[in-house]
Amino acid sequence: MISEYLQIWNKFSAEKERFISASQNGEGRFWEATERDGFLLLLFVRINSLCDEFMFLVENRRLVSAPIVLRSILEAWLDFHCLLDDASYINDIIGSEAKELKKLYQSYSHNKNSPYFQHLNAEFCAEMLSKINEYSWGNNLNIYEKFKKYDLIDGKQSEGAYRAVYGRLCMDAHGNLSALKLNHLKDNGQAISIKEHSESYLKFLITTAARAGIQSFISLLEDKNYETDYYVTVRDSFV
């Protein structure tokens, strides 16, 4: 089953890459020259690039890092769909970045002797802070609020998706005790670098990633009134 999933994904990925190339050239361009469409394209490309790398990790049984990549896929997927549903969400994306940069530049004065701050100087930080203050900060939604804004699983199940899917992936990213045991401890108590996982666990990982990638493609097509029946069928093959 896992090999079949990978074959389906590889076929979809090739079609997706052709579409991305064709959609940005010629008179029949898919994308309008709007800020929203530009950000949607970038987020879509990021989601599916991460999905391609995720599938490579699974195929080569690099299953320690695969869930961490999957977490990043879901985070980009949420931003994509929040922006798709609400054009003003772009202020959240810009504001979130500006908030973190503001913390960085504000911390320069008491970290200027740190080797990690050698690429900065007082004048540059002051200039950047003045520019950041001009931004609209948006709502700066946390990850749970993003799940509530756009439901991850088909239907109204954002709470379950957040706890059972995203929460599980965060355990892998943070390397807590459960994740350490799952990924690095054999039944006899021996620590190992690479551990084989059950087919059900691999299925959970692959179907979650594939559905996120394909659904983002479907959503793009629907936003421009393109036919999506074929890709809905492809998405639904990951069950």
The beta-strand count equals: 0
Number of helices: 10
> Which class do the helix and strand fractions yield?
mainly alpha
Radius of gyration: 21 Å
Assembly state? single chain
Judging from the principal axes of the Cα atoms, what is the shape? globular
Q: Would you list the SSEs in sequence order as H and E?
A: HHHHHHHHHH
| Low-confidence segments | none
Strand residues, percent: under 5%
**C-alpha end-to-end distance:** 11 Å
Main sheet properties: none
Report mean pLDDT, rounded to a whole number: 85
Roughly how much helix do the residues carry, as a percent range? 55-70%
Structure notes:
The protein has helices at residues 2-23, 35-59, 66-85, 90-106, 122-132, 143-149, 158-174, 177-184, 199-223, 229-236. The termini are close together. The protein has ten helices and no strands. α1 (2-23) runs antiparallel to α2 (35-59) and α7 (158-174) packs across α8. The longest helix has 25 residues, at 35-59. Helices cover 67% and strands 0% of the residues. It has 239 residues and is mostly helical. The mean pLDDT is 85.
How would you summarize this macromolecular structure in one to three sentences?
This protein is mainly alpha-helical and 239 residues long. It has ten helices and no strands.
Give the secondary structure arrangement, pairings included.
Blueprint: H1 2-23, H2 35-59, H3 66-85, H4 90-106, H5 122-132, H6 143-149, H7 158-174, H8 177-184, H9 199-223, H10 229-236
Helix pairs in contact: 1-2, 1-9, 2-3, 2-9, 3-6, 3-7, 3-9, 4-5, 7-8, 9-10
